Amino acid sequence: MLENAHRAKAAGREVVIGYVEPHARPETQALVAELELLPTKEFDYRGVKVREFDIDGALARHPDLMLVDELAHTNAEGARHTKRWQDVVELLAAGIKVWTTLNVQHIESLNDVVGQVTGIVVRETIPDSTFETADELELVDLPPEELLSRLSTAERMTT
Fold first, then answer.
1. Which domain does 33 fall in, by range?
2. Which of 15, 37, 107, 118 lies at a 20 to 30 A Cα distance from 63?
3. Domain with 53 in it: what CATH number?
4. Is the dihedral of CA 34, 25, 81, 126 positive or negative?
5. In the predicted structure, residue 158 carries a pLDDT above the cut 60
6. pLDDT tens for each residue of 27-77
7. Strand partners, 50
8. CA–CA distance from 24 to each of 8, 16, 32 (Å)?
């Protein structure tokens, strides 16, 4: 998504990052550093400050193209929407084009199949209807070992 965003910016599009989770990957951090990044909004979650996508800031900024990472994410209590995909639906309704990321296990109708194959149940999903509204999809394949490692890490983080 970030590499495509750089190409879009070079072609003259107004590209703004609404939210990105770099996962401490240096190559991701380098790509983020070269694009406009909106400030996040802080929420108190069980005594811990967590940063979330700022939907109001994004709507006020109103770029041509907004990048919003991790579509299936559950927002912190106190955010306007329970799920990040609901934030994206609001951006789209406001006329902002959105590029986002999603892992196949987060698509509601595929969740059971992925769980059977991997043995890992993913709790954060998006409705198929939201997935089906996409104008364009880009599939990025990972080696099975890396996918299982990411799924295992995600499972540990949600339990």
1. 2-158
2. 107
3. 3.40.50.300
4. positive
5. no
6. 889 999 999 999 999 999 889 999 999 999 999 999 999 999 999 999 999
7. 43
8. 24, 20, 12
Q: Please count the structural domains in the chain.
A: 1
Of the CA atoms within 13 Å of residue 38, those in its CB half-sphere come to 27
DSSP assignment of the chain: -HHHHHHHHHTT--EEEEE---TT-HHHHHHHHTSEEPPPEEEEETTEEEEE--HHHHHHH--SEEEE--TTPBPPTTSSSSBHHHHHHHHHHTT-EEEE---GGGBGGGHHHHHHHHS------B-HHHHHT-S--------HHHHHHHHHHHHHHH-
With beta carbons less than 8 A apart as the criterion, state whether 122 and 154 touch: yes
Q: Say if residue 96's pLDDT is above 60.
A: yes
Q: Give yes or no for residue 86 having a pLDDT over 70.
A: yes
Token digits for 21? Answer: 């989770």
Whether 143 shows a pLDDT value over 90: the answer reads no
Task: Tell me the C-alpha distance between 80 and 90, whole Å.
Answer: 11
Return all residues near 65 (Cβ < 8 A) that are at least 6 apart. Answer: 5, 8, 13, 14, 15, 16, 96, 97, 98, 99
- 102 touches 71 (CB < 8 A): yes
